[in-house]
Amino acid sequence: MGLPYSECSxxxxxxxxxxxxxxxxxxxNRNSSKTVPSKDCKxxxxxxxxxxxxxxxxxxxxxxxxLRDYQLDGLNWLAHSWCxxxxxxxxx
Length: 92
Hints:
By secondary structure, the chain is mostly helical. The protein folds into 2 domains: 11-38, no CATH class; 47-92, no CATH class. The chain has 3 helices and no strands. One of its GO terms (biological process) is nucleosome organization. Keywords: ATP-binding, Nucleotide-binding, Nucleus.
């Protein structure tokens, strides 16, 4: 854990289960979750048209935790990149 990719190695599954069963359980739960999109999810294949956020979304912060202008710009950039399929290495 915590190693850069160049220093990672393959480990025996039984050893991992002894030390990191909570991580394995977390992965299994996320993989079977109904709230986390699966790889077959339609929105991951057909992304919507980008619409810029002019104000902070309600799901981020509250009246005491407001995004700064540059943070809202960054959020818009991330959303724009995702809508244009430039946010990943999927080659779309």
